[in-house]
Task: inverse folding
C-alpha cells in the first residue's frame, strides 16, 4: 500500500497563462524594427554583452544572436555557452529558468533577460514548498530534476539534466543501482523510464505546449505523407512519442532534419524551431504536428506564450537600462550550482 507521501502531489499551475494579446511580435512602427536591430547590436558591443537565445524565441532575436557572436541553442548549450564566453554580461532570451541557470553557473557575471515575466508551466508546476518535502519523504532516491525548474528546486536536487542528456544521465545512475525521484515533466520522465528501465518515481507536471500535440491527428497526417519523418520533443505525450522517427531535444531535432535523407518532416515541438530548421535544411519541407486546435481557447498552438514575450523592444530596453537582472540568493545559488555543474561535467565526460 502506498502512503500519501509516496505519491507525487498533483500541482496545478499557480499563475495564469499570459493572455493572448500580451505576447507575440509587437506591431513595429515603420523603420522601428531596423532601428532596434541596429541599436541592439551596438549596445551588445558597448556593454560587453552577449545574446544567448533559445530556438523558440522570435526570429529577429535568433538572427541578432547569430550575427553578434552569441548563440541560439537548446537549454543545455545555452547553459554551457555563458561559461565559455568572455562577455561580462549574458543577455538570456528565453524563459526564467534559463536566465537562472545562466546565473547559477556564472555567479560573477551580470545576467539580464528581456522580460522577467516569461515563465514555464513545468517550473510553475514544481513549487519548492511542495517539492522539497516530497524529496524529504524519499531519502532513498537520487533526485534528478529537469533544467525547467527554479533555483530552489535545483538546490534540492542531486542532478540537473536537460532533454538532450536525460536518458544518458539516468542510464548512468541506474547502472550504479540508484533509484530516482524525477521532476517535473511527467512525459519526459515516463519516456526516460521506458527507455532506460530505471526505477523512477515521477512528479506530475507538464508542458502546456507539448502536451497538446495529438496522436490521432498526427497519425492521419503521417499516413497522408508517408515520405515524412516525424520529429518529436520528449515533453510530448507517450502516444505522440510512439509515432516518432526521432525523439530528441531541440538541437537533436534540428540535427535530424539536416542529416536524415527525408525531404519532408512533421515536427512536434514549438514552431519557433522552424527558423533554424529551415536554415539547417533549406531544401526540405517542415510541417507542424497537429495540436489541440487553432481556436480562441488554444493557449499554446505549438508556440510557447512565455517564449513569445521576448521581443526587440524589451531586449533593447534591458540593454539600455540594465533592468531585469537575474539574482539567485547566495546559499540557494551555491547548492543549485552543485547539481547543475554535475550536468555540465557529465557532458564534458567527467563522471
Ligand atoms: P530543449 O532543451 O530541448 O531546448 O528544451 C527546452 C524546452 O523548454 C522545451 O520546451
Ligand atoms: Fe516550458 Fe513548454 Fe514553454 Fe518549454 S515550451 S519553456 S517546457 S512551457
Result:
Amino acid at each position: 500500500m502506498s502512503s500519501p507521501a509516496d505519491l507525487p502531489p498533483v500541482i496545478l499551475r499557480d499563475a495564469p497563462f499570459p493572455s493572448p494579446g500580451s505576447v507575440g511580435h509587437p506591431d513595429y512602427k515603420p523603420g522601428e524594427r531596423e532601428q532596434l536591430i541596429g541599436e541592439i547590436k551596438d549596445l551588445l558591443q558597448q556593454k560587453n554583452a552577449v545574446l544567448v537565445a533559445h530556438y523558440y524565441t522570435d526570429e529577429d532575436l535568433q538572427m541578432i544572436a547569430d550575427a553578434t557572436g552569441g548563440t541560439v541553442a537548446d537549454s543545455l548549450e545555452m547553459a554551457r555557452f555563458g561559461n565559455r564566453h568572455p562577455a561580462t554580461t549574458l543577455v538570456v532570451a528565453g524563459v526564467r529558468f534559463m536566465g537562472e541557470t545562466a546565473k547559477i553557473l556564472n555567479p560573477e557575471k551580470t545576467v539580464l533577460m528581456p522580460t522577467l515575466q516569461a515563465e514555464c508551466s513545468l517550473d510553475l508546476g514544481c513549487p519548492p514548498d511542495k517539492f522539497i518535502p516530497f524529496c524529504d519523504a524519499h531519502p532513498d532516491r537520487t533526485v534528478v530534476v529537469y533544467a525547467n525548474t527554479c533555483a530552489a528546486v535545483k538546490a534540492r536536487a542531486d542532478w540537473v539534466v536537460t532533454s538532450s542528456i536525460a536518458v544518458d544521465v539516468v542510464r548512468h545512475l541506474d547502472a550504479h543501482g540508484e533509484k530516482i525521484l524525477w521532476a517535473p515533466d511527467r512525459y519526459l520522465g515516463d519516456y526516460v523510464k521506458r527507455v532506460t528501465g530505471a526505477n523512477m518515481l515521477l512528479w506530475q507536471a507538464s508542458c502546456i505546449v507539448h502536451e497538446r500535440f495529438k496522436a490521432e491527428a498526427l497519425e492521419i497526417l503521417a499516413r497522408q505523407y508517408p515520405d515524412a519523418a516525424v520529429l518529436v520533443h520528449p515533453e510530448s505525450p507517450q502516444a505522440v512519442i510512439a509515432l516518432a522517427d526521432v525523439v530528441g531535444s531541440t538541437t537533436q531535432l534540428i540535427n535530424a532534419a539536416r542529416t536524415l535523407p527525408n525531404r519532408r518532416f512533421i515536427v512536434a515541438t514549438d514552431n519557433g524551431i522552424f527558423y533554424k530548421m529551415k536554415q539547417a535544411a533549406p531544401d526540405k519541407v517542415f510541417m507542424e504536428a497537429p495540436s489541440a486546435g487553432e481556436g480562441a481557447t488554444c493557449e499554446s498552438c505549438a508556440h510557447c506564450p512565455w517564449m513569445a514575450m521576448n521581443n526587440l523592444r524589451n531586449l533593447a530596453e534591458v540593454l539600455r537600462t540594465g533592468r531585469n537582472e537575474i539574482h539567485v540568493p547566495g546559499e540557494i545559488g551555491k547548492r543549485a550550482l552543485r547539481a547543475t555543474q554535475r550536468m555540465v561535467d557529465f557532458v564534458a565526460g567527467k563522471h
User: Anything to note?
Assistant: The CA atoms of residues 52 and 196 lie 32 Å apart. Residues 19-23 have pLDDT under 50 and may be disordered. The chain has 15 helices and twelve strands.
